[in-house]
Design a protein that fits this description.
The protein is globular. Strands 3-4-5 form a three-stranded antiparallel β-sheet. A three-stranded antiparallel β-sheet has the order 8-11-12, with no helix packed on it. It has a three-stranded antiparallel β-sheet with strand order 13-14-15, with no helix packed on it. The chain is built from 17 helices and 21 strands. The relative contact order is 0.15. It is of the alpha+beta class. It has one domain: Glycosyltransferase (Alpha/alpha barrel), CATH 1.50.10. The structure holds 1-deoxymannojirimycin (DMJ). The site of 1-deoxymannojirimycin has 8 residues, from loops.
Length: about 475
């Protein structure tokens, strides 16, 4: 869970002698050479090298994160305001959804992060842009999954932190336009694309993530508008696919929205399946829907039985034939590293810890995780890094769940590595090759960077007074739907 009771957290920190100044929750960082905490499941040899935290401890790190955010935001406003994504090396920009048609993706992704960081002028600047410019009456096809987790989720989280009714009305308008991808489908599995103006749908060849990553955005939209149609559509897509699971309780990732037939046999926990499982758990957490919990439990048990394996002492998840269980690949996408947090949230802290340890070995080797590896050797099979948040996300979740400082240290290593390899003239950029020295940069800052790792860093290093550490929810895109303290 991302909602360890604050009291429990403080007592855990206190028991470890880690609470700092009386009356605050600031923890003194442990020495990098200190042995790993008992019960962490790691040995001293497994502990990654960490950069020494600066004087001032975690508070100083959090302030540093805030400064970097403010500096990056100013560059974005100067060079690319309203465009979807800045190109931080050249100072240009590019659009994400539709060529030549900006949707302010970065603004929408950044809003709740800016608010949580108390960057109120920047938040107001972004909100004004949304009021003045954002309009979904666009005659173009939008990818339903990305529009949901980024734009709908961004608007809903900004509404949650501000209560501004315009944000909810924009979210409802967008939700209605996206819903057509579900209601036009004969099975209830959404088409991948919908034209936001005309409602024309396309691309019935879809996958698990694009089938089942809606229930939290659609669910809070239902809750906040009082209209259950969004939640019901998202749940139906889950039910249809769950009911077609193999006798091994596994799901192939490739499915056809019009026929409901599987288009391949491969089960994976990575893309394009990953957040399907995440949202089963999250839907249960947010709405208490026990069907979702049951489906999650059945599928996770199947995955742990048939896909989990230990290679060279490390836990990984193979790709397997969903109908026979035969292993088909030992490659692993960086995106799968979020699974460490999901496993812990779902109650399997031991597997969560072990899987984070596995990815820490990769971080130790490359500094920055490559997009893909072959896990028996840890060799990179895809050498870029799209400025990814998953490892930091999992560290944040594990820290909330266990109170173990190991995860704050790992997030700190991730942050320092990002600063040293991705910082450039006008912000932070992707890495084209993590194996070169220095790491070769690309020229592009994805929208999720504003919504995800900046927020995870701020919340894990700081004692964010606008965040309820006891009771909260962050979506797959890092959007906050519960736990803003206004
Ligand atoms: C984000 O858009 C979300 O986390 C999504 O679920 C998959 N990954 C990207 C970031 O890597």
């Amino acid at each position: 869970m991302r909602n360890l009771p604050r009291r429990t957290l403080l007592s855990l920190l206190g028991a470890a002698g880690l609470t700092g100044v009386t009356g605050t929750a600031w923890a003194t960082p442990p020495s990098p050479s200190a042995p790993p905490p008992e019960g962490s499941g790691v040995t001293a040899a497994d502990v990654p090298a960490v950069f020494a935290p600066p004087p001032g401890g975690w508070r100083a790190v959090a302030e540093d994160v805030r400064r970097e955010t403010q500096w990056s935001w100013r560059s974005y406003v100067d060079r690319a305001f309203g465009h979807d994504q800045i190109k931080p090396v050249s100072g240009g920009y590019e659009e994400f959804f539709v060529d030549g048609h900006p949707m302010g993706l970065t603004v929408v992704e950044a809003l709740d992060t800016l608010w949580l960081m108390e960057l109120d002028e920047e938040f107001a600047q972004g909100l004004k842009w949304v009021h003045d410019n954002l309009n979904f009456d666009v005659n173009a096809s939008f990818q339903v999954f990305e529009t949901n987790i980024r734009m709908l989720g961004g608007l809903l989280s900004a509404y949650h932190v501000s209560g501004d009714p315009k944000l909810l009305s924009l979210a409802r308008d967008l939700g209605d336009r996206l819903l057509v991808a579900f209601t036009k489908s004969p099975t209830g599995i959404p088409y991948r694309y919908v034209n936001l103006r005309t409602g024309a749908v396309s691309s019935p060849e879809t996958n698990l993530a694009e089938t089942g990553t809606y229930i939290t955005e659609f669910g809070v939209l239902s809750r906040w508008t009082g209209d259950p149609k969004y939640y019901n559509a998202a749940k139906k897509a889950f039910r249809v696919t769950f009911d077609k699971r193999s006798s091994l309780d596994l799901l192939p990732w490739d499915v056809h929205a019009e026929t409901g037939e599987w288009r391949n046999r491969t089960a994976t926990v990575g893309p394009p399946a990953d957040s399907y499982y995440e949202y089963l758990w999250d839907g249960y957490r947010l709405f208490g829907d026990t069907d979702l919990k049951r489906w999650y439990d059945v599928l996770i048990a199947g995955i742990n039985r048939r896909q989990a394996e230990t290679v060279n002492g490390r836990l990984w998840f193979a790709q397997v034939d969903a109908f026979t269980g035969r292993r088909t690949s030992r490659s692993q996408s960086e995106l799968a590293s979020f699974w460490a947090g999901l496993a812990a949230e779902g109650g399997d802290v031991a597997r969560g810890r072990a899987y984070h340890d596995s990815w820490t070995a990769v971080q130790d080797r490359y500094g920055v995780l490559p997009e893909g590896i072959s896990y028996p050797s840890l060799n990179a099979t895809s050498v870029g890094n799209q400025l990814r948040p998953e490892y930091a996300d999992a560290a944040f979740v594990l820290w909330l769940k266990t109170g173990d400082e190991l995860y704050r240290n790992r997030a700190y290593t991730h942050y320092q590595q990002m600063k040293s390899s991705s910082k450039t003239r006008y912000g932070y950029t992707i890495i084209a090759d993590v194996t070169t020295t220095p790491k070769r940069k690309g020229d592009f800052c994805p929208g999720y960077w504003w919504s995800e790792q900046l927020k995870y860093y701020w919340l894990i290093f700081g004692d964010a007074k606008r965040f309820d550490y006891r009771d909260n929810y962050l979506s797959t895109e890092g959007n906050i739907f519960r736990g803003a303290r206004r």
